[in-house]
Write a structure and sequence with these properties.
Strand order of the largest sheet of chain A: 1-2
Shape of chain A: elongated
Radius of gyration of chain A: 18 Å
Number of domains of chain A: 1
Low-confidence stretches of chain B: none
CATH superfamily of the largest domain in chain B: Sodium/glucose cotransporter
Pfam families (chain B): SSF
Structural class of chain B: mainly alpha
CATH architecture of the largest domain in chain B: Up-down Bundle
InterPro entries (chain A): Na_symporter_ssu (IPR019886)
Protein name (chain A): Putative solute:sodium symporter small subunit
Largest sheet of chain B: 2 strands, antiparallel
Low-confidence stretches of chain A: none
Number of helices of chain A: 2
Radius of gyration of chain B: 24 Å
Number of strands of chain B: 4
Largest interface: A-B, 46 and 53 residues
Number of strands of chain A: 2
Order of helices and strands of chain A: HEEH
Organism (chain A): Shimia marina
Oligomer: heterodimer
Keywords (chain A): Membrane, Transmembrane, Transmembrane helix
Strand order of the largest sheet of chain B: 1-3
Shape of chain B: globular
Largest sheet of chain A: 2 strands, antiparallel
Structural class of chain A: mainly alpha
Order of helices and strands of chain B: HHHHHHHHHHHHHHHEHHEEHEHHHHHHH
Helix content of chain B: 55-70%
Mean pLDDT of chain A: 90
């Protein structure tokens, strides 16, 4: 295992990526899907508005993108910090 | 061949397939029984987890709840998928690195306390059992319809099948069986949706059809639907009517609960590497999204079809469907078959030979009704849980599609019930008996106690399932609230904070579970026994917070209590801090260790 200072840097980088991802996660679901829906009312999508699309489809697509982004980013970060599995 | 024979053929063939796989991959050792020897590829694991996860609630119940409520029930869609983001980012890789078999083992070791482990076991048994009640509700609806018996008889037959099925295999049998079940259930869900989307919008992809054009009128599908339901006095489909605060809390509870359910978390113990655990969560959501992107289309299109069938001549002015049509036309055969289950009913209250379906609580419609001599809504009963199963019949699809949906609905209910029973049985035999009561128990007795625990759990769930606290998806939502309030906070704090110690974690879990359970029982009856409740979800104890939404508050209580208690008691020992440090980095994740 590598030294503790490197592990601490790895962990804080990880926590930062998690926080950014969770902000996006909350924005598309609680934000665009529910609370900010009135603000998106002007943008029409197939007979309704963008908020409805986010609530029923858009948020799911963003969730998928987030998880794959995180897996890719973290597997790269593991290697950079020398903590990946051999 | 009759529809009944076709249904039996499809259901029978799919069962033969699952049982065949279960026998072929029968668990030999305890290690295989719980975790399949960790030889499962992320994509395979993702597919099996998706089958495990998507239960009767997702398959049978969810689209029906969306169909009759519209936008306001989007919480189910966002909540049950958004939880995977929490799972993938906050739990899965670390729990895999930790390398034990069960969730409670992690809690017991991280919080260096046998008490913490036993409390975790109790929490997961409570959440899982509630979840199984919801499954049994769905199983009852599905078996009732396809064996053409009453809902109760269907439930009892279903319970026997689930039990026989779960007892045979362990995780390994279940993993490969669940891959087969995923294939059956996703085909069964999407094929009728594709047919219906083609009929209504000309688009073969239901998710696009939902936002596409209604072919018959040339208007957008959702605009057409809004127009029809408002004409009948119902709330506009795409509009936001629900209380916003409750909707946010409900969505959050479902998300946190998803990341706190033991049978889902357990799946991430079965992938070979930490990096695979990250990918595996993504693959699981891909397979889940195939159904979840289709479900809102199924709901909207079914609502449109039902409204048009009840008013076949272009809305209220053209007149309602006649009793004669319902009894004689092939298009309406589904109504007679579903009436037998007791979950659908109609009554010609004003004796005019027609069945008027409208919202008799709406003032405008009451005025129209008075003028036309209607005496209330005559489609007197339409259980939400029948919508998906009845959908292919409502849309007049070929009989093999109906048989396929029967097999799919049962696959969804069975796969989840089996996964939950496995989580319950391993909690009892591995964590409670082997971990706490008798560490020297033989492998054979451990497997036996696992099976006895399964039998008890299914008996309790069946008994409570006879009088369920709600539709399948609503009961399942309660289970998510319980998992959200108890398990998830303990796991997350165990990984992300070294400050939380043994007493803090135990106090947090107990506080979260207790307040949530009390809040649910106050609204749904003590132990879900009808009539023992003091409040209803229509007029809840705290503001607008329904019992299904309380999990998020329970989780906040758990976090707060754990933090306060931990700051007042003895600090976490150094060797536990070192354990947390090692869980945080992937390097050194070997094969799992049993102790």
């Amino acid at each position: 295992m590598s030294d503790n200072s490197s592990n601490a840097a790895y962990w804080s980088a990880n926590v930062r990526i998690i926080l950014i991802s969770l902000v996006i996660w909350a924005l598309v679901s609680f934000g665009f899907g529910i609370l900010l829906r009135p603000m998106l009312a002007g943008i029409s999508v197939g007979g309704t508005d963008l908020g409805f699309w986010f609530a029923q489809q858009g948020s799911i697509l963003v969730f998928l993108a987030l998880i794959f982004f995180y897996a890719w980013k973290m597997n790269k970060l593991d290697a950079e910090h020398g903590v990946d599995e051999e | 061949m009759s529809q009944f024979a076709i249904n039996l053929l499809f259901v029978g063939a799919s069962f033969a397939l699952y049982i065949g796989i279960a026998i072929w991959a029968r668990a030999g050792s305890t290690s295989e029984f719980y975790a399949a020897g960790r030889g499962v590829h992320p994509v395979t694991n993702g597919m099996a987890t998706a089958a495990d996860w998507m239960s009767a609630a997702s398959f049978i119940s969810m689209a029906g709840l969306i169909a009759f409520t519209g936008y306001d029930n989007s919480s189910f869609l966002m909540g049950w998928t958004g939880g995977y983001v929490l799972l993938a980012l906050l739990l899965a890789p670390y729990l895999r690195k930790f390398g034990k078999f069960t969730v409670s083992e992690f809690i017991g070791d991280r919080f260096y306390s046998q008490t913490a482990r036993i409390v975790a076991v109790v929490c997961l048994i409570v959440a899982s059992t509630t979840y199984v009640i919801g499954q049994m509700t769905g199983v009852g609806v599905a078996f009732g319809r396809f064996l053409e018996v009453s809902n109760t008889a269907g439930l009892l037959i279903g319970a026997c099948v689930v039990f026989a099925y779960a007892v045979f295999g362990g995780m390994k049998g279940v993993t490969y069986t669940q891959v087969a079940q995923y294939c059956v259930l996703i085909t069964a869900y999407t094929i009728p949706a594709i047919f219906i989307s083609l009929q209504l919008t000309g688009t073969p992809i239901p998710a696009l059809g939902l936002f596409g054009e209604h072919a018959a009128s040339g208007e957008p599908l959702l605009a057409k639907l809004d127009a029809i339901v408002t004409e009948l006095g119902f709330a506009e489909y795409t509009a936001h009517h629900a209380d916003t605060f409750n909707m946010v809390l409900f969505t959050l509870s479902l998300m946190i609960g998803t990341a706190g359910l033991p049978h889902v978390i357990m799946r991430f113990f079965t992938v070979p590497k930490v990096s695979d655990a990250r990918w595996s969560a993504g693959w699981t959501l891909v397979f889940i999204a195939l159904l979840y992107l289709t479900a809102p289309a199924v709901g909207a299109m079914a609502r449109l079809n039902i409204s048009e069938l009840m008013w076949p001549n272009g809305g209220i002015d053209g007149g309602a469907v006649t009793v004669q049509q319902i009894e004689n036309d092939a298009e309406y055969d589904w109504m007679a078959t579903w009436q037998k289950t007791g979950l659908l009913d109609w009554e010609d209250k004003n004796g005019d030979g027609q069945i008027q379906y409208y919202n008799d609580k709406n003032a405008d419609l009451q005025a129209i009704a008075a003028e036309k001599g209607w005496e209330g809504n005559e489609l007197t009963k339409f259980n939400r849980d029948i919508l998906v199963l009845a959908n292919p019949e409502i849309a007049n699809l070929p009989s093999w599609v109906i048989g396929l949906v029967a097999a799919g609905g049962l696959a969804a209910a069975l796969s989840t019930a089996a996964g939950l029973l496995l989580a319950i049985s391993s909690a009892v035999s591995h964590d409670l008996i082997k971990g706490a009561i008798n560490p020297n128990i033989s492998e054979k007795s451990e497997l036996l106690s696992a099976r006895v625990a399964m039998a008890v759990a299914i008996a309790v769930a069946t008994w409570l399932g006879l009088n369920p606290p709600g539709f399948a998806a609503q009961t399942v939502a309660l289970a998510f609230g319980l998992a959200a309030a108890s398990i998830f906070p303990a796991l997350m704090m165990g990984i992300f904070s070294t400050k939380i110690n043994n007493t803090g974690a135990v106090a947090g879990m107990l506080a979260g579970l207790t307040v949530t359970l009390i809040y649910i029982f106050l609204h749904k009856g003590w132990l879900f026994i009808p009539g023992t409740n003091s409040f209803t979800d229509a007029d809840p104890l705290l503001g607008t917070v329904k019992s299904t939404s309380f999990g998020a508050i329970g989780a906040a209580v758990n976090f707060a209590v754990a933090y306060v208690v931990a700051s007042m008691t003895k600090e976490t020992p150094d060797e536990i801090k070192a354990l947390v440090e090692s869980v945080r980095v992937p390097r050194g994740a070997g094969a799992a260790q049993d102790h």
